[in-house]
Amino acid sequence: MSEEPRIGVFICHCGGNISDVVDVEKVREAASKMPGVVVAETNRYMCSKTGLDLIKDSVKKHRLNRVVEASCTPRMHLTTFRRAVSDAGLNPYLLDMVNIREHCSWVHTDKDAATEKAIAIVRGSVMRARDLEPLQPEYKPVERSVMVVGGGVSGIFASLELANKGYQVYLVERKPSIGGKMMQLSKTFPTLDCSTCIGAPRMVEVGQHPNIKIITLAEPVKVSGSPGNYEVTLRIKPRYVDVSNCSSCGECAKKCPMKRVPNEHEAGLAYRTAIYLPFPQAIPQAYVIDPGHCLFFQKGTCKVCAKACSRGAINFDEKERLETIKVGAIVLATGIDVMDPSPLKEYSYGLHPDIVTNLQFERLLLGGMLRPSDKKVPKKVAFILCVGSRSPERGQPYCSKVCCMIALKQAFLLKEFHAESEPWIFYTDMRAAGKWYEEFYTRCREHGIKFVRGRVAEAKPNDGLITLRAEDTLLGAQIEENFDLVVLSTALLPSAGTKEVGQLVGMDTGPDGFLLEKHYKLEPVDGAWTGVYAAGCALGPKDVRESVVEAMSAASRASTFLGGGKIEVSPEKAFVFEDLCDGCGVCVQPCPKNAIVISDGKAVVNPVSCIGCGICVPVCPKQALDLKHNTEKQLLASIYGVSQSNVKPLIIAFTEKVVGYRAADMYGLDRRKYSPNIVIIEVPTTRRVGLRHVLHAFAAGADGVVFVEAEDNWYGLSKEEGLKQFRGHVSQIQRDLRKYGIDAARAMAVAVTLPQYYKLEIFDTVVNRVKGAKPITDEVRAKIKGVLSN
Amino acid sequence: MRYAYYPGCSSHTSGKEYDRSFRLIAKALDIELVEVPDWTCCGSHVTYVFNPALAASLSARNLALVEKMGEGIEVVTGCSGCYQTLKRSNDLLKHDANIQAKVKEALEAVNLSYNANLKIHHALEALTTQEALDTISKKITKPLKGLKVAPYYGCAVVRPKFEDSFDDPENPQSIDRLMKVLGAEPVPYIDKTRCCGGVLIMKHERVGLEMIRRLLANAKQAGAECIVTPCALCHLNLDIMQPKVEQAFKQRFNMPIFFFTQLIGLALGLKPTELGLDKHMVSSVSLLQSKGVGV
Amino acid sequence: MSLITRKITPDMMDPNFESTIRKRLGEKGEKVPLCFQCGVCSGSCPVAFAMDYTPRQIMELIKLGAKDLVLNSSTIWLCAACYSCSVRCPQGVDLKQVMETLKEIALEDPKYSRAEKAFYEKFIEVVRKNGRMDEVALYVKLMPKSAVMRNLGFGLKLYQRGKIKLSPAKSSNDQVAKISEKVLAKEVHQQ
To answer: Among B168, B190, B194, which would you mutate to test the A interface (most chain A Cβ atoms within 10 Å of its Cβ)?
Structure first.
């Protein structure tokens, strides 16, 4: 900084909230004498127009180039004051705001001590302000394109929404056609819309949309880059059929000799050929060869399809290939798989053709609703719910949410088809909680569907029929009954590969295997990384309506992110002093965002990936890393500033900025008390603070430090890992302090959540402990000062 | 193959033919069965209710004797109840410090000790390994000519699940496989693993009889001409009690009940009387004659 | 005599009953509160048709602490210990072990086990005395004279087939008696 600091200090009465305890005039007096301070003012309400005008006028009148604001928590009015400062012509990063309300006047009763502490806080701010630098946020252009992974209903609706907003969409689907599970369904509950009828037109829309490129038989295998500029490598399997040339005439399939391949679309109930059209409404509307069953690929013979094709659309030489696309955002819509109930042997799946899954039953509904075994009309049909769901011991612990409604719908449709059929639903609970669901349940009872409350114990083939045994729990009596068709409502699992595709974009899966949203309540479709979203059953089982809601929500989020055409990258990032860096690489691993690489023998920080946590700074043995707006100079200035407090012994509480700081605010909001021996210094995370800074604190006159960290860290580690690293960090500092003659008890740690802000009672515990201990001798402090000056 | 053979208390009474047929076919298949010298009751699940430490001690006594019979020897028993009890005790002695202490003390009183290291097999397990089935298959002289058999496992041989259980508790296949090798036809039987009632027949006769009746009726409905079982207590219930069932419910079943070892014996060419088929309450003579099996 | 009531009042609820059972079950006891009354156990049970309370209902009664209703039920004595319930329970409750524990508790108090304990006591008696179990010996000890007389003809048939002996099978030593004495001399259950 080339110019002399001309600092203005502005202290707020806050209508008595501060001035009733802290003698703000005394603080003003003290501040006016601090080095670099040109003017010090107070006001009843600094955030009011009067107060803000005072600041602006002072800046102009006294040619201020730094502003210190001492009032309430910055969480309330930092933006307000920054704007005022900016309006007065100063870079907003030249303002430092400190908290003398929630962290001082509201938590102390001793007015003199509180005033002394407020003076110390202001001093720390003034000293820090001297080293503040003007900073500009960076703006990086973003790619106006989005990759949507998964072409089911969620992927389709997210794609259409984004495409209609003008974004280029890459819809990446691993099957040969988009459509997903919805295209296998008969009718959707509770409205009984024909699933294909409402789905197919959207599929066509996707296929024809100029902004959507469908890439089938493809999966992402690598994602690199940063938010707004992701680079994705796709692995694309060969279709062996030229999509643009294929007219789906079907001549190839007619000639194909491999006629007994289980048909995936029919859920295994029918067959297809090796060259096939996935289903009549497939988009892209083109055939595909299944090399696992094709005679040419298995034995080197045949190729009759190529001969039959009048357009020469078949190409056996097509190879698997890798393709890279650049996108600004990613939406995961990878959907579900239906569990295979074979391992639950009590249900005898696979031992009788008339024991089917609920997905297979959908196909039966579309195929005339006849028994698979003899194609006769089924007379008594049992629907067994919770097959593999709500079974921690023998399946999935979670509820698959939609099976109750699916069974109701299927039983209803069965009776529509065959009035004389008798559907029985065996349930554990009847979950019909959505819009119009309960009314549909009522309709089902009116329709004559029988209900038995009891989870079925076994279903075994018996002389052509299937014998079911269950307890009618409402009666407390066993039921044994024979059915000629049994439908297993099998659990819904996250589709194969969900965990892996999530990992590509930093999205963890939960214990249930489904993708984990950023925040369960408030960010339900966001991934952990900026620019990554998820929608639909990839996040958990749900019906079509909810999937569409999430798809549109994810599209909206992606659009919010990309909409400005550029992203604002906060300037509060780590940076490297290249002349000090020797490329040792120690800083690479600790970075939770993998934002540091070694390039040409020097550490390089990617400013877009860097989140400004500061974990890397104390790690560097050469002190070659620093953090903008929380530089070493600025942090040490704060430390030395507050350490001159007259309230001894002094304990500095390095407090993490998101949860820790807010917890301290809440403590004050609650008017809980602690002793004024504690002074809070805000840090991005306590990991920003290393041994060096703690030693400086002791050298400056502090008698103890506390690390206040968030239990749920904001920098992307799992809770367990974050806590583990935090505790390890503090333990190491405690061990190191002993070498300097400082007892480990003078460095304490606490991890808090917002609801547990009362954990900050530890402040008084530390103060009492330090008060009770023998004071640190001058020799010890001198020795530390000696070490630090080398 | 050489095993320490633990016959179980039923081998002298209701399971006499089981014991006899097992020994005979073992000989024919070159399996050496060395009877545990002066074995005593394993305790059974009844003792477990009364006092788990006592039950474990009774089991452990026998297993301690087996340990003395040779390094690496493994136990085989035909009685499903003994199989379940011995395995249960074995497991408990591996994991439960409390039981370990009590059993140790009890065995010391009779100068014995047991290390909980033995492997315990059921006769069905031993005779349906791939190796055993191959041996049987080679030595068959009188295949069972499509005899329709309901494979009835009972409960104790497949439940509870141990780490080394040899067959599935819901849809076990060992008897089914064996029947096919013997040339018989196992019918799909929905009550394959449904408990016969066990000891209930003694104090709760009506309940026990109804449970047996159901098993017989369902076997009949499945098209079975006979039932095969690996458990002496199931055999007691299904065979010895069959006349009582017929009398109580006024239904005719006439369903011969075989021990699986007897069917193996017939296929190997042994005579029905050698195998103790004449000791059953429900005669199998006319069935076997009409099928031309064992003649 | 049916003990089923259609009302459960506070005096019928013992707040310690469930925890007593859980403690006896050790690690398995942790699963007991997970029972969500699905009914798979009752559906699987081969004897439930004859019980006054189904196995699932017993779990419900345990939760309510209805000790007398549970220990007076026919359920716990009719349980054949076949493990069908335990193998299928979606929450992993070892219901067979719960039933065994209930039997144990009932046997400790003659109030609950008057009718049933004879079977267990006589069984142990036969085994202690002879070293081996013998069904006839047990039957004769256990059943009333009228039942024995009624079944003489039946018994004769069995005797002719060599299925029963007049004198019970015995072991050659008295080790079983010694073991039993040693174990039973100590306190049976730690509460």
So the answer is: B190
- The model's pTM is 0.82
Look at residues B97, B105, B85 and name the one whose alpha carbon lies nearest to residue B39: B85
CA distances from C147 to A107, B202, C141 (A): 86, 11, 11
Q: Which two tokens stand for residue A4?
A: 């002399």
In whole angstroms, how large is the CA radius of gyration of chain A?
Answer: 34
Q: What is the ipTM of this complex?
A: 0.91
Residue range(s) of every CATH 1.10.1060.10 domain in chain C: 10-110
Nearest by CB to residue C183, choosing from B102, B159, B280, is B102
Distance, CA of B209 to CA of B200 (rounded, Å)? 9
Q: CB of A351 within 8 Å of any CB in chain B?
A: yes
**CATH fit for domain C10-110, picks 1.10.150.120, 3.20.20.480, 1.10.1060.10, 3.40.50.300:** 1.10.1060.10
Gyration radius from chain B CA atoms: 19
The structure tokens listed for A549 are 């809601």
Phi-psi category of residue A463: left, alpha or beta, with phi > 0 → left and psi -120 to 50 → alpha: left
The pLDDT tens digits of the residues spanning B258-274 come to 999 999 999 999 999 99
| C100 contact B CB<8A | yes
| Three-state SS at C91 | coil
Tell me the per-residue pLDDT of B166-204, one tens digit each, with 9 for 90 and over. Answer: 999 999 999 999 999 999 999 999 999 999 999 999 989
C56, C90, C92 ranked by CB distance to A471: nearest: C56
Contact state of A473 with C42 under an 8 Å Cβ cutoff:
yes
Judged by DSSP in three states, B232 sits in: helix
Question: Distance between CA B12 and CA C171 in Å, rounded?
Answer: 12
CA distance B198 to chain A (A): 21
Distance from CA of A361 to the nearest CA of C (A): 24
pLDDT in tens, A194-245: 999 999 999 999 999 999 999 999 999 999 888 899 999 999 999 999 999 9
**Considering only CA atoms, which of A131, A68, A127 is closest in space to residue A95?**
A68
CA distance C71 to C79: 13
Asked if A127 reaches chain C (Cβ–Cβ under 8 Å), the answer is: no
C156 CB within 8 Å of a chain B CB? no
Longest dimension (CA), chain B: 58
All structural domains of chain B, each given as residue ranges with its CATH number in brackets, are: 2-123 (1.20.1050.140), 142-291 (3.40.50.11810)
Chain C segment 15-44 residues within 8 A of A by beta carbon are 34, 36-44
Would you state the structure tokens that stand for residue A736, as one six-digit string? 């190191």
Output the CA torsion sign for C118, C120, C123, C129: negative
Which chains contact B through at least 3 pairs of Cβ atoms less than 8 Å apart? A, C
pLDDT tens by residue, A589-643: 999 888 999 999 999 998 878 889 999 999 999 999 999 999 999 999 999 999 9
In the predicted model, what is the mean pLDDT of residues A272-294?
96
Residue C190 pLDDT: 42
Give the tens place of pLDDT for each residue, A660-719. 999 999 999 999 999 999 999 999 999 999 999 999 999 999 999 999 999 988 887 888
Residue A9: beta bridge partners? A40, A68
